[in-house]
Design brief:
Largest sheet: 4 strands, mixed
Oligomer: single chain
Shape: globular
Strand order of the largest sheet: 3-2-1-4
Order of helices and strands: EHEEHE
Distance between the termini: 23 Å
Length: 74
């Protein structure tokens, strides 16, 4: 869950953070969710999932550490 992701050089500066229900994820991801009901996904402008992390704060920190500007998707 805390694996570093090598963001592509061509990644756009804006990324989207949204809550994801663990029950909607593949079984192998559910098994690594440590009992959480929700995880947070970081997506690029094309909708491609770049990362899946334990909480919203971590998603924003991850994005900023990679020089990306995170915004929340409702």
């Amino acid at each position: 869950m805390n694996t570093k992701y090598a963001f592509p050089e061509s990644a756009q500066a804006l990324v989207y953070v949204k809550a994801v229900n663990v029950s909607d994820l593949p079984q192998e991801v559910q098994e690594e969710a440590d009992g959480r009901d929700q995880l947070f996904a970081v997506h690029n402008a094309d909708g491609e999932q770049l990362a899946l992390v334990a909480d919203r704060r971590m998603a924003f920190v991850l994005a900023r550490q990679n020089d990306l500007s995170p915004v929340t998707v409702h």
